[in-house]
Amino acid sequence: MGRFEPQPIDAPGKDFSLATKTEPGQLVTHGQKSPLLTVIQFIMDQRTLIILILLCAVVGYLIPSFLTGKNLLNVMRQVSITGIVAVGMTFVIITGGIDISVGSTVALSSVVAAAALKQGLGIPASIVLALMSGIAVGLFNGTLIAYGRVLPFVATLGTMYVIRGVALIVTQGEAIWDLPKSFLTIGTGYWLGIPIPVIITLVVYLLGHFLLNNFTFGRYVLGIGGDEESARLCGVGVKRIKLYTYGLCGLLAGLAGVVLAGRLGSGQPSVGVGYELTAIAAAVIGGNSLTGGRGTVLGTLIGALILGVVSNALNLWGVASFWQTVISGGIVLIAVLADTLRRRRAR
Amino acid sequence: MANNGVNSSQPIVRMEHVTKHFGGVYAVRDVSFGLYPGEVLALVGDNGAGKSTLVKILSGAYLADEGEIYIRDTKVRIENPMHARRLGIETIYQHLALMNNLDIAANIFMGREIRARSPLGRLGLMNLREMRNKSVRLLEGFEIIVPDPKREVENLSGGQRQIVTISRAIYFQAQVIIMDEPTAALGVSETRKVYEFIHRLKEQGIAIIIISHNINEVFDVADRFLVLKTGGLVGIRRKDETSIDQIVTMIISGKADSG
Q1: Does A124 contact B at CB distance below 8 Å?
Q2: Domain that holds residue B26
Q3: So what's the ipTM on this one?
Q4: Residue of B74, B134, B145 with shortest CB distance to A29
Q5: Are B180 and B252 found together in one domain?
Q6: Is residue A59 part of a domain?
Q7: Low-confidence residues of chain B, pLDDT below 50?
Q8: pLDDT above 70: percentage of residues in chain A
Q9: Does the beta-carbon distance from B125 to A20 stay under 8 Å?
Q10: What is the number of domains present in chain A?
């Protein structure tokens, strides 16, 4: 078909320089910024990180027991499971979508892992099976959304109920207990004094960060979020990328389910309720715009930590858990409002 | 088609009896033309004449219902925009097909990123530095001041945005460049630059199709004019055998009068 394959302009023997020589300095203008502007820019770019640091400082000042290594690791461990889910959610949100089925997927995966272990399948095989169940849910969502053109919210709302039902049917509503001791290490063990769930979470964030910024997949995710039609015209397989994005989100929800099963020592069909909201909240607080196109994986990590620190501080303070829900919800509303105002000002 | 040729070489692209309808409405009806290396073909006509539909068939956005497309005498079926690009046909869309949230380099290379040479490149690991360097070199070919390629495209002026899309087409060595109202969003000096640029592309043997509402503006740059009215071909005229007035008459009347 291709009679002439396009070649890069710097192919040997080709002179494609289309203009006369000009002063180099004229062409690339980086702009002279005043130091004050640079500082303001830095604060704006890193605002969530600065909020997190200030929050830790204030809480640490008010509650001395907060800033101990043990407590901080505890915060991170509490954040880890929804934190893993939030990475997948970040990719989905950047495409302009949403996945509210992740909580059910976590439950399904924990149940699959536990059931496989009870069948004597061995730890690696059981984990792979659980992850695959997560991918399957994600690809199902992705198919509905990318190829069936169902609204992401509606598609994943349906899946949320279906998958929760499947998890309940498989277990007949009962938790699966008595998992092998060595499996529980995934949820309760330590490596070099750091809880294993925290290590897994940090690795997931690091990989997610590189996937988004250094791989074509991440670039296409950003491109789709920026302008889906333009991305399509540039030759991006928009449907395929969306399918994979939901598949990735399902995979990470599956991983969170495995870690959760390890921590609880059981596979439970009713866990994970509300995880989708925590994950969405972490992404939004971390600066991901719900309209898509804008966001970072590390921002989501900071968002997840802000939520974790607030919840931990309220616990240490002895604030009733009902109030904690109200406060967490309030933080999300503030983050969404801030994003909306920022975009309106940018217009 | 030989009677339309501006030179003796064979056409790069030939469209034969191309028809496209949406429901019962014909957007393009039985249009045939050839496009030759190094020529600028202006597609002119009123709103709804079928100009955009015709080029979208060539750029892979629409599939023709009837008719054939030949590229250098090979019959092709252009399935999608990526396929068109692989065939050497680049399109610069009116709304520019830019992703505002991404930087200049990301936009230039969108869909065709340079990958790392390591095995991870096969998995999609990009060579960000090389893409950035190549973008800088590419943009330095323009005399228009362009900002740092790490800047997001939404911060650019209309002319700078246009330059990014043209760079994209140039970089991948298009044989045919389709420009849909390329200067609609540009100021006077930027428009002049774009036309200057089109001359340079011609010298490289690239064929250019320009869609324009402004006949006065394209009259200087174009070699031939393809006039459409309500989806049908009114006529094709070489610049040396016609005048602005005659083209305008053809657009309005829809008749290829003598001249």
Answers
A1: no
A2: 7-88+176-187+203-259
A3: 0.82
A4: B145
A5: yes
A6: no
A7: 1-7, 259
A8: 90
A9: no
A10: 1
Q: Which chain B residue has the Cα nearest residue A31?
A: B147
In a domain, B162, yes or no: yes
pLDDT in tens, A240-274: 999 999 999 999 999 999 999 999 999 999 999 99
Q: What is the mean pLDDT of residues A312-331?
A: 88
Q: Is the residue at B96 inside a domain?
A: no
| Cβ pairs bridging A and B (under 8 Å) | 146
Q: Are residues B142 and B182 in the same domain?
A: no
User: What is the tens place of the pLDDT at every residue in A94-114?
Assistant: 999 999 999 999 999 999 999
Q: From CA B147, how far away is CA A18, in angstroms rounded?
A: 18
CB contact, 8 Å: B88 with chain A? yes
CATH code for the domain in which residue B71 is found: 3.40.50.300
Q: How many CA atoms lie within 13 A of A340 on its CB side?
A: 6
Same domain? B15 vs B138: no
**Cα B91–Cα B92–Cα B98 angle in degrees, nearest 5:** 120
Alpha helices for A151-274 (secondary structure H)? 152-171, 181-188, 196-214, 216-226, 228-233, 238-264
**Sign for the pseudo-dihedral over CA of A96, A97, A103, A109:** negative
Residue A152: both structure tokens together: 């992401």
**B93 inside domain:** no
- Which of A5, A7, A9 best tests the B interface by mutation, with the highest count of B CBs <10 A? A9
Residues 195-224 of B with CB under 8 A from A: 197, 200-201, 204
pTM for this model (two decimals): 0.84
CA distance B244 to chain A (A): 30
